[in-house]
Amino acid sequence: MVITQTPLRVSLAGGGTDLEAFWSMEPGAVTSLAIDKFVYVIVKERFDEKIYINYSRKEIVQSVDEIAHELVREAMRLTGVSGGVEITSLADVPSEGTGLGSSSSVTVGLLNAFYAFQGIQVSADQLARQACDIEIDILGKPIGKQDQYIAAHGGVRFLEFLPDGSVRVERLPVYNEKYRKLGSNLLLFFTGRTRRANQILAKQNENVRDNIVYLREIRNHAYMVRNAIIEGEFDAIGDILHRTWEMKKMLADGISYPEIDEMYECARRAGALGGKICGAGGGGFLLLYCPRAAQDAVRSALHGYRELPFMIESDGSKVIFNYRRYRWK
Predict the structure, then answer these.
(1) What HEC string does 161-223 produce?
(2) Are residues 298 and 187 in contact, defined by beta-carbon separation less than 8 angstroms?
(3) Given this model, what pLDDT does residue 197 score?
(4) What is the distance of C-alpha 24 from the center of its chain?
(5) Residue 10 to residues 187, 203, 279, Cα–Cα distance (Å)
(6) Other CB atoms closer than 10 Å to residue 68's CB: what's the count?
(7) CA–CA separation, 299 vs 189, rounded Å?
(8) CB atoms within 10 A of CB 177
(9) CB–CB of 109/6 below 8 Å?
(10) First CA to last CA distance, the chain
(11) What is the model's pTM?
């Protein structure tokens, strides 16, 4: 049996420039961090050759081609696992619609688990690239590349998406006390609504050329957050998040709605320096940058919304249990 643990993520700045419609014309950039909320994938050998899959539903099939769960199906095809396994996925938050990159964390975690099940070690870059292949190229999802890379690498990362399709990954020097200081100023509150991101992201893809000025500025914000982290000027991130959110709302309809706007302004009045909706928008989690002195007031102001406490996670997808025996023949 093999168990992998793959982190979810919070994107600080640059989201939208990781879409191919943008980076195919000019480089995109995102500053993102992994959090200690996880997707777990369990792969267990079975005596028979059937495939059992447990998630929000249960599947029992004879072959990979029969699998309805598209991420499991394509990850098995890519890694060469063909049968005689039971696969279970578990998550600390709902598996879709939260804006925390859970779908890509599932894909990365599946790939990692299937390789480990066969005794194969692969790099974080390979996991990220192949997760992108599955989600974007094979399944045609209108998403970007940042989620797969932060799920595979973990930590606090600055990612550059180059026109040749390559991704440059920089680990930012945030360790020990800096990790705690940066993480302690970030708060997550659930808006009470999940959403499917594909419709919003598809519209963003269509609007890239019309929104090129906004997207370039959003990309610049990713560089500004990177520099603020390197220099330890964490409070500057609040203002950058605020400016990013104001521009993000211009990219497509449905990214925000009146309740989110009121929720955000309420937090700002209580002392949050800035924030944004995680992921594509339209629901999910609201990220706030809030100095610790104002956090009680912000929590009081948002008392009707559930907070998700978290810390920055230094590791990317990893195998946390690996007990393999010979395969039954």
Answers:
(1) ECCCCCEEEEECCCCCHHHHHHHHCEEEEECCCCCCHHHHHHHHHHCCCCCHHHHHHHHHHHH
(2) yes
(3) 66
(4) 21
(5) 11, 22, 8
(6) 10
(7) 9
(8) 8
(9) yes
(10) 17
(11) 0.94
Tokens 């996991």 belong to 127
Q: Which amino acid is at 81?
A: V
With CA atoms as reference, report the closest residue to 299 among 262, 272, 260, 326: 272
| Three-state SS annotation for the chain | CEEEEEEEEEEEECCCCCCHHHHCCCCEEEEEEEEEEEEEEEEEECCCCCEEEECCCEEEECCHHHCCCHHHHHHHHHHCCCCCEEEEEEECCCCCCCCCCHHHHHHHHHHHHHHHHCCCCCCHHHHHHHHHHHHHHHCCCCCCCHHHHHHHHCCEEEEEECCCCCEEEEECCCCCHHHHHHHHCEEEEECCCCCCHHHHHHHHHHCCCCCHHHHHHHHHHHHHHHHHHHHCCCCHHHHHHHHHHHHHCCCCCCCCCHHHHHHHHHHHHHCCCEEEECCCCCCCEEEEECCHHHHHHHHHHCCCCCECCCCECCCCCEEEEECCCCCCC
- The band of 192, judged by pLDDT with boundaries at 50, 70 and 90, is confident
pLDDT at 189: 96
Q: Which residues contact 248 (CB under 8 A, 6 or more apart)?
A: 15, 16, 218, 255, 276, 277, 281
Q: Which residues are CB-contacts of 106 (< 8 A; sequence separation ≥ 6)?
A: 6, 39, 41, 71, 89, 91, 95
Say what angle helices 124-132 and 102-117 make with each other, to 10 degrees.
120
